[in-house]
Specification:
By secondary structure, the protein is an alpha/beta fold. It contains 9 helices and 11 strands.
């Protein structure tokens, strides 16, 4: 049986590109450019690139991008979009838990839960961060977003679950938040690109800032900053609060 995230993205590219969160691409790329000091000579790795929205926009701005994803169907849509845009982008099918890169990239991005908090175990999530670190050159950066564990705690787990209903094309049918593992186990109903209805048994890991800091230090990052992630408005000025559903993390290797 396939993991839920593989089933979700098997035939979902068109629906994905119409989700509300994709409207923040331009502002998010503005932040990435700033973190890259507008240096067009660097190499950027887009982990969990999906249909290529960040890869394509950054390539339009003159950056050298390699986009990797586990879903061949999402990658195929990314390739089609890049051809339509007149761009040549290196899109590859790779598993973020086992990347073939070693100190090849100056910057890696992993946005909109591009793999990291979606894995079935904490060990798998750890492998993603470790592989990202190995892919980045000394002095390079990792920019990623992940689920903020302070959010469900502050709003109480009951209120957090009660407020999960319909978001874009996804409907939460049932949900249980496990305080021992900080995982949200839920049944999510979606409609794929062919109009088929799927009920997915999902498990998503929420992290608190201290966990993220410890994990990143363990895999070799030294300078770590965590901010509140706001759709299309990534900024170092956005202090993380309990109202932020996601965290924005910027980590640098020594």
């Amino acid at each position: 049986m396939k993991p839920w995230y593989e089933s979700l993205f098997e035939n979902y590219g068109n629906k994905y590109d119409n989700e509300a969160f994709t409207h923040g691409t331009l502002g998010e790329c503005d932040f990435i450019e700033n973190e890259a000091s507008f240096n067009k000579n660097i190499r950027i790795l887009d982990i969990g690139c999906g249909t290529g929205r960040h890869s394509i926009e950054l390539t339009k701005r003159g950056y050298n991008i390699t986009g990797i994803d586990l879903s061949e169907s999402m990658l195929e849509r990314a390739r089609q979009k890049s051809i339509v845009a007149g761009l040549s982008i290196d899109f590859r099918r790779e598993d973020a838990r086992n990347l073939p890169f070693y100190e090849e990239f100056d910057l890696a991005i992993m946005l909109c839960e591009g793999g990291f908090p979606l894995m079935e175990t904490d060990e798998m999530n750890f492998e993603i961060l470790k592989n990202a670190s190995q892919a980045i050159k000394p002095g390079g950066k990792l920019i990623f977003t992940t689920l903020n564990g302070l959010f469900p705690l502050f709003h109480s787990v009951k209120d957090f679950i009660d407020n999960q209903h319909v978001e874009g094309n996804a409907e939460t049918v049932s949900s249980h938040f496990d305080l021992m593992t900080f995982r949200d186990f839920n049944t999510t109903r979606i409609e794929d690109d062919n109009g088929n209805t799927l009920d997915l048994q999902c498990s998503e890991r929420y992290y608190v800032p201290s966990e993220i800091t410890w994990l990143l230090k363990t895999v070799g990052f030294s300078e770590i900053y965590i901010f509140g992630a706001r759709l299309g408005e990534f900024s170092r000025t956005h202090r993380l609060t309990t109202e932020d559903f996601e965290m924005l993390v910027v980590a640098t290797k020594p």
